[in-house]
Amino acid sequence: MARIVMKFGGTSVADLDRILNVARHVKREVDAGHEVAVVVSAMSGKTNELVGWVQNMPKVAGSDAPFYDAREYDAVVASGEQVTSGLLAIALQSIGIHARSWQGWQIPLRTDTAHGAARIMDIDGSDLIKRMGQGQVAVVAGFQGIAADNRITTLGRGGSDTSAVALAAAVKADRCDIYTDVDGVYTTDPRIEPKARRLDKISFEEMLEMASLGSKVLQVRSVELAMVHKVRTFVRSSFTDPNAPGMGDFDNPPGTLICDEEEIVEQEVVTGIAFAKDEAQISLRRVADRPGVAAGIFGPMADANINVDMIVQNISEDGSRTDMTFTVPSGDVAKALAVLEKNRPQIGFDVVQHEAGMVKVSVIGIGMRSHAGVAATAFKALADKGINIRAITTSEIKISILIDGPYGELAVRTLHSVYGLDKQ
Ligand code: ADP
Ligand code: ASP
Ligand code: MG
Fold it and tell me: Of 17, 169, 277, 295, which sits 20 to 30 A from 314 (CA to CA)?
């Protein structure tokens, strides 16, 4: 007997039939004698709808704040998960399983007060452990928690993954299964490259890079938590027949295991290709080349909560003026330009140029630590296809390349093939 946390994403609970299907997956594990807690997302499309409603409301009268009250945003968008947790509990009861729904505040799952992107501070797992011991299946609403001011918070888009991994750590689960609409983590998004291969295992470090560089199959924070708390996390499909052979295999369920790199016997040089659409490039021309200028630009950006990513600074030709280029999400360009304009006197630049609709494509693999020439291969492959590179950043285990949006998918497929990742 083991303790398992099972998480089901939006497409897995998209309608009542799928919720009944999820109940059958849960029943399989309960019948095998395991203690089970389930984490659910909202029905697919629901959170987008809720976010849209909030965004279309008028601003607070007399306020110069650009946005609505983030606490009320959370009150609205957390509701999607409340619905699915209740529906799944009903579905489970209908097939004879003792189940009860739990909202974030009822557990409680405590977070900080960063509404809309809250971080989990603490989960009291004791009540859930007790109830699971009594044979009750806990159906937990993902994505939501409660802050010190007693208000509901949400964990950022895709946050149910994080709820699940955090809960698995809190109840000391033997496994956390993330059920989704693909049957594991692939070498790249299988919707973009049909030749993508499913990975049996991927290391925490690589999954962290994949997720932060655009592979939304797992929320970044969930991978961080799995790594820190050593949660055995599998990504697997809810669309496979719940009783298909092997689905109940405890040690080796079908899917991808996220694990320590020591567990991976045959390590490829490149493990996967990630990509992020809707990046924008901002260039400041003729910036003063003196100490403090980067702090003068990026400090105010951070204060305005703008996520600056690739940064390229040229060596100045004459020792006095240089160019500074960086990327931000396209949706943040207007805000970033306003911040730069406001701080123009302190920063001191000639002109600011910007362009949206870029794609960042990244090559990821821990094998890069010990292999030279990986970046050169990417540059040559892209050049052969006539794809121009706008900016490059590298770390020990990844290379990221910024290119024009229309070339994004071609670049992903080109790199996928050149590193031998295509399925045979
Ligand atoms: P859920 O609603 O279950 O949380 P998501 O849509 O958040 O599902 O994540 C699953 C999706 O992630 C897949 O449908 C797939 O298109 C996408 N994805 C992106 N990169 C990858 C990858 N490397 N491997 C598998 N899926 C990926
Ligand atoms: N429902 C939330 C979202 O769409 C959380 C999640 O699905 O993980 O972002
Ligand atoms: Mg998701």
Answer: 277
Cα 47 to middle of ligand 2, angstroms: 6
Q: Give the residue, out of 22, 41, 51, with the most ligand 2 atoms within 8 A of its beta carbon, to mutate for a pocket test.
A: 41
Say if CB 251 and CB 259 are below 8 A apart. Answer: no
Look up residue 333 and give its two tokens.
């360009």
Centre of ligand 1 to C-alpha 186, Å, is 9
- Class of the 3-263 domain? alpha beta
Specify the 3-state DSSP secondary structure of 52.
helix
Residue whose Cα lies nearest atom 15 of ligand 1: it is 189
Distance 379 CA to ligand 3 centre (A): 31
Ligand nearest to the CA of 8: 1
Query: Residue 251, Cα to own-chain centre: how many angstroms?
Result: 26
Tokens standing for 305? 């909560």
The DSSP line for 282-294 is: EEEEEEE-STTHH
Q: Give CA–CA dist 357/254, Å, rounded.
A: 37
- Among residues 7, 424, 3, the alpha carbon closest in space to that of 177 is found at 7
Domain ranges in the chain are 3-263, 272-418
User: pTM of the prediction?
Assistant: 0.94
Q: How far is the CA of 11 from the centre of ligand 3 (A)?
A: 9
Ligand in closest contact with the CA of 364: 1
> What are the pLDDT tens digits along the chain (424 aa)?
899 999 999 999 999 999 999 999 999 999 999 999 999 999 999 999 999 999 899 877 776 665 688 999 999 999 999 999 999 999 999 999 999 999 999 999 999 999 999 999 999 999 999 999 999 999 999 999 999 999 999 999 999 999 999 999 999 999 999 999 999 999 999 999 999 999 999 999 999 999 999 999 999 999 999 999 999 999 999 999 999 999 999 989 999 999 999 999 877 899 999 999 999 999 999 998 888 889 999 999 999 889 999 998 888 777 788 899 999 999 999 999 999 999 998 888 989 999 999 999 999 999 999 898 999 999 999 999 999 999 999 999 999 999 999 999 999 999 999 999 999 8
Give the architecture (CATH level 2) of 272-418.
2-Layer Sandwich (3.30)
List residues near ligand 1 (CB under 6 A): 9-12, 41, 158, 180-182, 185-186, 188-191, 210, 215-217, 272
